[in-house]
Amino acid sequence: MKKIFLIILYTFFVIVISFKVYSAGSKDAKKANESLGKDGPPPAGPYRLGFKELQRALKTENKGKLKKAKIKYEKALEHLLEANAEDPANPDILNYLGLTNAKLGFNENAEIYYLLGLELNNEHKSIKLNLGIFYYNNNKIIKAKEILVSLKNCGCKEYNQLKAYIN
């Protein structure tokens, strides 16, 4: 319970800070668009921005550019925290928050986000896959195998991916 309260409190502060930064930047963007004589397209929402930044971070990490990837993970985390504040009961957002926190080394937060996502949707295969990989990477082999067993009868690619990762 204390961990959940701390996460909510942390999320609140990040949102407040993000809102102040975003609102300051949006005035400049409006002025720039006014000088062009058009409003421009509406900005993408924080969920989409976070997801896209997470994809970029994963690609950058796969290329071996770890410092650049870390910066992208941090940007993704900011957007995803904002998205979570707008839609706190979205297991997909919680899954991406878990993955992003795990990539940044915030293992306690990562596990909490994965578990919160599973509380909302116990059949979410991507969360189970990512949580199983997370447990395996953190030497919690028994828990990783429990996740694998829970995916066994789904007939899904996530089961095969986690099985291959563990073995």
SSE order, one letter for each helix or strand: HHHHHHHH
**CATH topology term of the domain at 45-122:** Serine Threonine Protein Phosphatase 5, Tetratricopeptide repeat
**Overall morphology:** globular
Number of helices: 8
CATH class of the domain at 45-122: Mainly Alpha
Q: Beta-strand level of the residues, as a percent range? A: under 5%
> What does the radius of gyration come to?
18 Å
- CATH-derived architecture of the domain at 45-122: Alpha Horseshoe
Would you count the extended β strands for me?
A: 0
List low-pLDDT spans: 16-37
Helix content: over 70%
Distance between the termini: 34 Å
**Structural classification:** mainly alpha
Please summarize the sheet with the most strands.
none
Q: How would you summarize this macromolecular structure in one to three sentences?
A:
Helices cover 81% and strands 0% of the residues. It contains eight helices and no strands.
Task: Give a verbal description of the structure.
This protein has 167 residues and is an all-alpha fold. The protein has a domain at 45-122: Serine Threonine Protein Phosphatase 5, Tetratricopeptide repeat (Alpha Horseshoe), CATH 1.25.40. The chain has eight helices and no strands. The chain has helices spanning 2-36, 46-62, 66-86, 91-104, 107-120, 125-137, 141-151, 157-166. Helix 4 packs antiparallel against helix 5 and helix 6 (125-137) packs parallel to helix 8. The longest helix has 35 residues, at 2-36. The radius of gyration is 18 Å and the shape is globular. The two termini are 34 Å apart. Residues 16-37 have low confidence and may be disordered.
